[in-house]
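seq:
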Amino acid sequence: ADYFQTLGLQLLRGRGFDQRDTEQAPHVVIINEAMARKFWPGDDPLGRYLTFNSSTQYEIIGVVSNAKHTSLQEEDEPLAFTSHQQAPSRTMDLAVRANYSFDREPAALINAIRLAVSKIDQEQAIHNIVTMEQRLSQSIAPQRFVALLLSLFATLALLQALIGIYGVMSYAVTQRRQELGIRMALGAHPGDILSLVLRRGMKLTVIGMALGLMGAVASTRLLRDMLFGITPVDPLTFAVMTLLLMCISLVACFLPARRATKVDPMNVLRSE
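struct:
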């Protein structure tokens, strides 16, 4: 009767199962939001009937929120829940919500659960006891492994981009050494030289970022099955990563630009 409260599902309409729903009482059923939306769009399903096994009719007494029951990848499918007293099963899954302090893990309550069940039936076997965190971790293990690999490759690509930008800007400053020296000899301040080099470097970075964002948006459909609770084109994610890349590019451009401000005009003119 406390299944929905235990798993944190919200009762949207109607009532939950209680002591009234015995084997002799009229059969009742609770449906999820997906079933209500599919079969009774815009109507109240409470009081309607579902027929199971072509004979038994169950009255709908409540509607609960949708939930992921087997995998985070599953779609919200229509589901109906019956009371164990009215539709008993040969096997059962026991869900336990533990009230525990921060210094006690849920796994520590396994012995207490075994003891409680043995008081009811000493011959009842209990197996496959896992915490909700373990179930969640197991369900997303393949996606987590792929995400770890992609994160590793992305980090290497980011490092390579940093080295590449620094190398290109260093080469550009070396090629323009005479020009920068002449500018300083004619009165340009170090801040002007710094701004000039940074503007050129960041202009190339912005062009590269625009091309990269278009490629990223086009490739998001390949990551759709790996995302949970987030859309493939998430504005916040793209904004944060764009800002991060801009900051890294700024650092990569700043080092050669700072070196350009230390050019000695006299040495440049003497070499010319």
